[in-house]
Design the sequence.
């Protein structure tokens, strides 16, 4: 009995020593694993910085210079959005976009009641629209968001777009073409303003803003017979709507923000290093392709979309899904612009006395030579004759040509009914 008691402390010391050794080995493995994972990510970051791109939120803040005081369009748009968001529209329940009302479909005029409701809204929100008009005079814009602190004013900007879209529609319903085009130009300026802002995942707002602008243009084209000069004005506005490097900027901003979040919680060094490496693998792969630009990047992005990940790359797969969403928003915005550009080109052709052909191949060569590409397919946009008008469409995110089915939301469509 005493002999067993004598060996018991020795056994405990032996077990304690084993646990200590195992703990030291695991700790060293974790530390070494974290270090090994961090080395290639630092090389990646250094390479990006060597190109003059920001790699931290502080660098991103400096990279996007603030407009001169009093000349930041975004500040005015955000102030207008705050006013619109604070308003009580219960008395205007039939108000479209803000209330329960719906804008009529293309080719159907507003009822007198609808016009009166919108007119009441515009009068009540006169200060908000004054701010919108003042903002449209400035060329520079930057969302008043401090990148290091985070936060955004997406809801205010979204309210501003809804309000201006409604105002554009109202002027159009009154038949004042020149005033309507001025409102469209303001709406387009707002979309361009959002395109200048370095907010992570900002392409969702860019796509939404362009949706508002092109929907307004579709209304205008179906309401009024625009002159050649007015169509040329529309073309100039469309050319300025989406900066070609907007996808690059979005990926950069998302890279800086997400990396800051990962680095803020590095208590477990191996997981921290692993998550950092997996994220930067996804970010840098998508950034490299985004730099190529359209249309050359199409096949490479398709390769990224179809990439198969092993269980060891679970984090990279999750991060890649986020970047794919940014790519999808960018392509959708590009498609909306391209179908509008193609439709305006056909309208100019009609004004010259040409007939609308049944098939794309019968369009005049001058139009076919400059016919836009569908970002989702890499092929020319679709075209259909439809009654007295026509439809231009892109295949959309499902990559399927559904023949321009606008009513089911399968394709990205611009319709001219007459």
Sequence:
């Amino acid at each position: 009995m005493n002999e067993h008691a004598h060996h018991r402390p020795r056994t405990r010391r032996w077990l304690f020593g084993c646990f200590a050794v195992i703990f030291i080995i695991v700790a060293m493995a974790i530390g070494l694993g974290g270090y090994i994972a961090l080395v290639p990510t630092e090389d990646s970051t250094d390479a990006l910085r060597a190109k003059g791109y920001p790699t931290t939120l502080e660098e991103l803040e400096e990279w996007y210079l603030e407009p001169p005081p009093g000349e930041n369009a975004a500040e005015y748009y955000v102030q207008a959005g705050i006013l619109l968001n604070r308003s009580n529209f219960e008395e205007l329940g039939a108000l479209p976009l803000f209330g329960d009302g719906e804008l009529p479909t293309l080719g159907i005029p507003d009822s007198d009641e609808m016009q009166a409701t919108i007119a009441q809204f515009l009068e009540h929100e006169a200060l908000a629209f004054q701010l919108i008009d003042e903002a449209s005079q400035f060329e520079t814009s930057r969302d008043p968001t401090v990148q290091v602190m985070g936060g955004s004013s997406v809801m205010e900007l979204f309210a501003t777009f809804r309000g201006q879209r409604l105002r554009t529609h109202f002027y159009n319903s009154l038949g004042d073409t020149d005033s309507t085009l001025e409102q469209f130009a303001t709406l387009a300026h707002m979309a361009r303003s959002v395109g200048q802002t370095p907010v992570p995942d900002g392409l969702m707002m860019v796509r939404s803003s362009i949706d508002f602008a092109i929907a307004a243009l579709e209304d205008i084209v179906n309401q009024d017979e625009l002159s050649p000069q007015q169509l040329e004005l529309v073309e100039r506005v469309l050319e300025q709507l989406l900066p070609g490097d907007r996808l690059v900027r979005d990926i950069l901003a998302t890279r800086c923000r997400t990396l800051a979040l990962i680095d803020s919680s590095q208590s477990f060094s191996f997981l921290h290093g692993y998550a950092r490496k997996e994220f930067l693998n996804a970010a840098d792969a998508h950034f490299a392709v985004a730099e190529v630009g359209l249309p050359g990047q199409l096949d490479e992005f398709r390769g990224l979309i179809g990439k198969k990940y092993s269980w060891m790359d679970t984090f990279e797969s999750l991060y890649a899904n986020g970047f794919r969403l940014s790519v999808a928003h960018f392509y959708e915005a590009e498609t909306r612009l391209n179908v509008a550009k193609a439709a305006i080109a056909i309208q100019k052709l009609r004004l010259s006395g040409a007939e609308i052909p049944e098939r794309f191949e019968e369009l005049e060569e001058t139009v076919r030579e400059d016919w836009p590409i569908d970002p989702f397919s890499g092929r020319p946009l679709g075209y259909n004759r439809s009654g007295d008008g026509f439809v231009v469409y892109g295949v959309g995110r499902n990559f399927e040509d559904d023949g321009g089915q606008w009513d089911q939301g399968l394709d990205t469509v611009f319709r001219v009914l007459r």
In short: Residues 29-39 have pLDDT under 50 and may be disordered. The first helix runs from residue 2 to 50.
